[in-house]
């Protein structure tokens, strides 16, 4: 909408209507951000900022080692990974990787057959801290209002929107998404 308002083909009345739509969309985005939760933690607002996330080390958990024999010789290689996933000895998942996939799988630097995985799902790795909520200063920043009533305001708002998208992408990268 900011691009439409900034391109110069709309009248002031059209831009006013676009501004009303932007305000409605902003209210909806704020409502969604205020209610978005994962594991009872608010992800897109600062409501969970005071919550303490404990690391696996603090919980006394140790990473599980996954070691499996692998054979890799030219293009005729195969690899089987068995991971114990349940309380009983016979509860395991087996993954077979055949010749067509092996060359691609191990082509990167530092590829190893032994990896570590957390013992309990949903617990962050040792030393990891809770990521900061995706918020920014309100003065001229991401949280400042989007205004498209003039061409100049629309272009300024477009820059703010692009900055917000960049901040969200950075936050997602920090979360491993």
TrEMBL record:
Keyword annotations from UniProtKB, A to Z: Cell projection, Cilium, Flagellum, Periplasm
Domain Flagellar basal body rod protein N-terminal: 81-112
GO cellular component: periplasmic flagellum
Annotated region (Disordered), positions in chain: 116-145
Occurrences of domain Flagellin N-terminal (ranges): 1-47
GO molecular function, one term: structural molecule activity
Gene3D superfamilies attached to this UniProt entry: f41 fragment of flagellin, N-terminal domain
Compositionally skewed regions (Low complexity) per UniProt: 118-141
Signal sequence interval, chain numbering: none
Protein name: Flagellin
């Amino acid at each position: 909408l900011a691009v439409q308002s900034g391109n110069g083909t709309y009248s002031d009345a059209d831009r006013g209507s676009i501004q009303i739509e932007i305000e409605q969309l902003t209210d909806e985005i704020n409502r969604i951000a205020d209610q978005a939760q994962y594991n009872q933690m608010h992800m897109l607002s600062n409501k969970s900022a005071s919550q303490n996330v404990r690391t696996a080390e603090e919980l006394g958990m140790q990473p599980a080692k996954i070691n499996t024999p692998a054979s890799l010789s030219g293009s005729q290689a195969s690899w089987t990974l068995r991971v114990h996933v349940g309380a009983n000895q016979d509860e395991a998942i087996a993954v077979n990787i055949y010749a067509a996939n092996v060359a691609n799988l191990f082509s990167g630097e530092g590829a190893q057959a032994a990896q570590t995985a957390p013992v309990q799902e949903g617990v962050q790795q040792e030393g990891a801290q809770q990521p900061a909520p995706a918020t920014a200063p309100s003065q001229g920043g991401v949280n400042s209002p989007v205004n498209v009533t003039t061409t100049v305001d629309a272009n300024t708002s477009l820059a703010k929107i692009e900055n917000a998208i960049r901040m969200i992408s950075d936050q997602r990268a920090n979360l491993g998404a």
